[in-house]
Amino acid sequence: MSSSYEVFASINHAVKSQVIGQESVVQALSIALLTKGHVLLEGLPGTAKTRSVKALAEALNAEFGRIQFTPDLLPSDVTGTEMYQEVAGKPQLSFQQGPIFNSLVLADEINRAPAKVQAALLEAMAEYTVTVGGETHALPELFMVLATQNPVEQEGTYPLPEAQMDRFMIKVNVDYPDATSERAIIQLMRDEERRDEELREDQSKKEDNSQTISKLTIDHQVVFAARREVQEIAVSDLCEEYMVNLIMATRESVRQSESLKQWISVGVSPRASIALDKCSRAQAWLSGRDHVIFDDIRDVAHMVLGHRITLSYDALADGISQSDVVNELLDSVPIG
């Protein structure tokens, strides 16, 4: 195993130690980090969505910015704006960077803001640049948008437009933890409160703890090296054909089962093909292999394809979810 693989194992361990019962979230964050993608986490309040992102930023020792999306948020609150200043007695405009210029950006409750603000993220997510006042500014080399949203049925939430959903490499539905994990969460919070109280009482312990945390952080060059290794993961013709068949089964009625014909209104875009390939290779790398197998493709299919499928009125009326559609895809499209 490469040193990069060992480092990513330590990242997973560090995040899992702070986020209990959400293994799928930790997997998604690792895959997105390897594929230079963005993540959308959807779940009810209190399911550790924000905590997961903060834990990843801490493990990476990365610059972290949080944007709380609200109905009165402005695009300039995200990207930054040009400010009037006097320099050496002369007036001039200087650009003040917004929170989007951090390495890891948490877009918290993204579906509570109007579309204009959500659209302010699109250029950053696609081009890794921000244009303000006709001038383009580059974002950090290590840059990820990690957005959270509450289910659209909740009051004050708005569905994201399809074009923006397609920009997210991965979407994960974050469920409530099981009873065992719930108990572990209580114990974890109790331990954290006790440790925080001890640190407040003893400043020297606080300094020692800071040194301990810093040992868990990694050099960002390790992330870039791991990404290069993922690019070298081999994909066989059979696996490549299986990916394409899954994609085409969302679009072409001749390839669809009777259920898929009734459930799918609009199939997935070519971005889904690219994302499925990248995420399958990342999953293979995280599993310690130098090639993709069919199980890698199936393991990432839900997080890559689900949010890109537009359901028909019949599906919505029958209570069919995007997850149900992906399950039908995996059942009806033959392997090999």
Which percent range describes the beta-strand content? 15-25%
Low-confidence stretches: 210-216
* Radius of gyration over all CA atoms, rounded: 22 Å
Strand order of the largest sheet: 2-5-8-1-9
Structural features, described:
By secondary structure, the protein is of the alpha/beta class. It is built from 15 helices and eleven strands. The protein has helices at 3-18, 23-35, 49-60, 75-79, 115-127, 162-167, 179-201, 203-214, 220-231, 237-248, 258-263, 270-286, 294-305, 313-317, 322-332; strands at residues 39-43, 64-68, 80-87, 90-97, 104-108, 129-132, 135-138, 144-149, 170-174, 264-266, 310-311. The strands form four sheets. A five-stranded parallel sheet has the order 2-5-8-1-9. A two-stranded antiparallel ribbon has the order 3-4. A hairpin with a 2-residue loop joins strand 6 (129-132) and strand 7 (135-138). Helix 1 runs antiparallel to helix 2, helix 1 (3-18) packs across helix 9 (220-231) and helix 12 (270-286) crosses helix 13 (294-305). The longest helix has 23 residues, at 179-201.
Write the layout of secondary structure elements.
Layout: H1 3-18, H2 23-35, E1 39-43, H3 49-60, E2 64-68, H4 75-79, E3 80-87, E4 90-97, E5 104-108, H5 115-127, E6 129-132, E7 135-138, E8 144-149, H6 162-167, E9 170-174, H7 179-201, H8 203-214, H9 220-231, H10 237-248, H11 258-263, E10 264-266, H12 270-286, H13 294-305, E11 310-311, H14 313-317, H15 322-332
Parallel strand pairs: 1-8, 1-9, 2-5, 5-8
Antiparallel strand pairs: 3-4, 6-7, 10-11
Helix pairs in contact: 1-2, 1-3, 1-9, 2-12, 7-8, 9-12, 10-12, 12-13, 13-15
